[in-house]
Amino acid sequence: MTSLTGPLPGWLAIPALASLLVAAAALLAWRFIRARNMQVWLPAYLRRRKRPAVAGPTHVMFCFVDHFEPMHGKPPLEVQRARVDRWCRDYRALASRHRDADGRPPQHVFFYPEEEYLEEHLAKIAQLCRDGFGEIEVHIHHDDDTETNFRHTIQRFKALLHERHGALPRHPATGELMFGFIHGNWCLDNSSPDGSWCGLDNELVLLRELGCYADFTMPSAPSPTQTRIINSIYYATDDPARPKSHDRGTPVRVGGQAQGDLLLVQGPLGLNWRDRRHGFVPRVENADIRANYPPTPARVDGWVDAGIHVEGRPEWVFVKIHTHGAPEKEAQVVLGPAVDAMHAHLEQHYNDGERYVLHYVTAREMFNIIKAAEAGLGGNPHQYRDFILPPPQASWAGAHEDGRRAMTGEMACTG
Q1: Distance CA 295, CA 241 (A)
Q2: pLDDT digit string (tens) for 17-75?
Q3: Spatial CB neighbours of 100, under 8 Å, sequence gap ≥ 6
């Protein structure tokens, strides 16, 4: 008989060792997942469905949003000025080298934080936008906020952006100033587990009532504020009695209509198997452009492959990426060769006119094209850039429209 206290025979030892190795690997994988809060969104990623095949070309709407914070790190005023001046100089030079299918340069969307407002910074950024290189939207960091203070802050800031800097459109039916939104520290609708950096469980309702046309915060991985829904364009209904109501929602569909409290436009989120650490560990692709994770052709391909679209309109793909582009370390990437090469790759591989057509869009234009798809419209999405919300003065179309109006007025006076 084999002793119960002796060594295992060889034919049992090998399976036992294999079991231990499998258990150890599973434990390491779980720790990897938990450390990056992937348990929140990984199930949705594993259940993802491939974008339906399309007969004609795929139109790629490419939107680059920026949590633009010149005061990040609390630098002195001369450093802030240098950051803004560098952007106005270097971005103009970079974007001028590129064009989409419609002749438009890349559009940078400056989500500017209310708490960092300084008139001279916004004046420079607004001029960059008037020159045709982007638009300005609303960003805010707040903590332990109240409904009254939040309403006052947003109303004051959007009026300031519009009246002094020509930003933000008015809704043609109501006249209300409308804005896109990114929440500071990713904590939309009080979604941080510890309740920090917000304080408002009814934030989605408040944003709707204040004129927010869409939120562009997600994805936020690896933050625990990341939603279970990924790679989607959807409506969320607020539950004022609980946080993170945007963890659930209803996809935008062709032939559908607005519902709930807020439209959310997400950027790509998944695993980047093209860029593996140590040769086998995939990186988390969260659409974030940073110094330690610059854009590459493989990342661009992954963003397009994510296939984010309005249900029923798979031939229109929406790619939204983000950055914190003001600090020097990040600006070195966003204003440098890596992003220059990113645009070159987009134009070479996603703008042949047969398989792909590229459109550089702002957040507002992306919203308008989404709503056009929802309304059942198709064809070339370029014609729907201003479908609902008109361009603000500080924008490509707004500046051109002002020029046309001025020319028309001059001709009327001299005719």
Answers
A1: 40
A2: 666 666 665 566 667 666 678 889 999 999 999 999 999 999 999 999 999 999 999 99
A3: 62, 106, 347, 351, 358, 359, 360
Question: How far is Cα 167 from Cα 130, in angstroms, rounded to an integer?
Answer: 10
CA pair distance 168, 232, nearest whole angstrom: 25
Q: Which of 141, 216, 139, 232 is nearest to 185 (CA)?
A: 141
32's tokens: 């990897």
> Helix count (H) and strand count (E) of the chain?
11, 13
DSSP-derived secondary structure for 118-175: -HHHHHHHHHHIIIIIEEEEEEE--SS--HHHHHHHHHHHHHHHHHHH--SPBPTTT-
Q: Using alpha carbons only, what angle is made at residue 217 by residues 212 and 221, rounded to the nearest 5 degrees? A: 160
In terms of DSSP bridges, do strands 233-236 and 316-323 run parallel, antiparallel, or are they unpaired? unpaired
Neighbours of 137 (CB within 10 A): 29
Q: Return phi, psi of residue 293, to 5°.
A: -155, 70
Assigned token pair, 231: 């790679």
Beta bridge partners of 293: 290
